[in-house]
Structure formats: C-alpha cells, structure tokens
Amino acid sequence: MGNVSSISYGGCVLGLCISAAFASLPSNDTKRIYDIYSVLGTFLGPTSTKAKLQFAVEDIRTTKSFATRKVEVWQDFPDENGGGKAARRRTMIQLVDFHVREPATSVLPGMTYSKQPLHPESYRDDPDTLINQHQYLEQTQSSTISKQFHHVFPLFFRYLDIKPITQSMGVAKALGLNSGAKTSQDSLALQERTNAQWFRIKKEEGGEGELTTPGERAAAVAFVMDSALAFLPLTFTHRFFNVVSAVSTLEFALRFFSPPNPNEWVLHEQHTENGGGARTFSTGRLWDRDGRCVASMSQQSIMRARAEKMGVAKL
Questions:
Q1: Under CATH, which architecture does the 10-101+129-309 domain have?
Q2: pLDDT in tens, 51-70
Q3: Overall pTM surpassing 0.85 (yes/no)
Q4: Which of 104, 206, 207, 278 is surrounded by the most beta carbons within 10 Å?
Q5: Where are the domains of the chain?
C-alpha cells in the first residue's frame, strides 16, 4: 500500500503468514479453541510480485495452553548471470503465538480493561452516518489528488468500506498526497497527530466476502493495520515520499487482545511515537463499536532522507 512498483504490500505477506500459521494448528473443538495473541516479525527484504511465495511453518511448541509457530517466506529468482540456477531469498520471518481460550472463571475481577483512543471525542458519530472514503475525497480534495489516491492506495477501495475521521491529519492530508493542507491537528504535538477511520471488510450482496474463520479475520486485520505506519511521520510533518530515499517497515509487533471481527465496523487510529537515527516508531490500534481495544500494531521503520531534499521539518 503506497508502493506502485513490483513490490508486494507488506500487509498481504503478513496476512498470508498468519493464515499459514493457523493452517498448522490442531483442529479447534468445544474444549480447545486457539486464539491468536501475538505476531512478531521482521521484513528481511522486499517481496516481489513477480515470483511465487513459499511458506515454511515450524511447530515451535504445542501444549495444552499455548502454540507457537515460526513462519518464513521464501522466493526463488532466476540467476541474473544466466547460469540457470535460481537464487533463493528469504523475505520475512514471523513468530506467531496462540493461547487456548480460558474459561470465564480464569479472569480476575477488574482485569478486563482497555486503552482509549488519543482523541475519543472525534469518534462519537455512528459510522453508519458518516460519508465514505470515496465521497470524502470527491468533496474535499482536487480531482488530481483523488485520482492519485486511488492509484497509490488501490487496495483500500478493493477490499474495504471506509468511513474516514475527517478531524484526523492523515485523512485531511490524503496520507500526504496533499501535504500542504491545513488541518485541525496542526497545533498539536507531533505524537498527538493521528490518522483514523472506521473500516469493515467489503461484502457483496448476499454476504459473499464475509470472513468466517478466526484465521481469515486475523489475517484481514493484519492486512489493514500494516498500512501507512512506515510513512505516517512524513504525513504528520507535511511531507511525502519525494523527500526520502528509503521508507519501509523493518520489524513489527501485532498483538490481539480479543478475537477481532472486521466484518463489522472497527475504529483504526494511528500515531507516531519516536524518531531518530533514520528510524521511526509508530503504532496503530483497533477498537470495536463497544469501545474495546481488540488489537495493536507497532512498527519500527527506516526513513532515510534524500540528500538534496533534507530541509527542515515543519512541526
């Protein structure tokens, strides 16, 4: 998402790894249901859209309470020297952890709680009453920026229903495509600026597209939550890709606090926390309509300045 070259969007690969991990689990039954709770991973290099993906899943542990899987992604590429022997490259490695669901009697009183969004007052409107992403772009952005957004971020429109939170900086700036736009968050500290929207998986008439298994739902959440975190600090400092020579995720931590259901509206809020040494650290969280935080994704990313465009950050 945000890359128009022949490099796969990281969220696609991340979601496929989660699906592979789920496929290796023992079958769920009424006594043992495996809930995913942690996905820790490293992008070892770009994943090409021109070569098939191979997934290697290793059972690290399977006990009566937990399961851990190591998932590696490999690709074979033709020998650039014409020798005929394919070069094999590993592009991602993940550790995926599952917890067998505990009975309600295992939960201590007062041990069910949830972090709130940075700007909860912005999210009080029912998502069913808000305009969608396409309408927002048509009403607030130029036709050129709207077309660019559809070109750079096409997967948003292909797979998701999105209701943008118009008060958030990421939305007002079209994720940086309109870097000069004035927003209601300009006066806030960098770490308090957000990109936020409600989303759900797009369903066709008759229910086709509904995600029915825990693995499908977790993979879909990973697919969405990977988006934009690497370059959000650019958006929040009124810049775009033209000022960097490299910007991409290095490593990530995706955590699930309860089984998510992206078939229904969920609130996604992202912000950045730290930057330095040509790296940034940003976080996104997901809430259901009851205000319960169901997932969190944090990423450390490379952000290397293009020498002739370094400039001074506008905070």
A1: Beta Barrel (2.40)
A2: 999 999 999 999 999 999 99
A3: yes
A4: 278
A5: 10-101+129-309
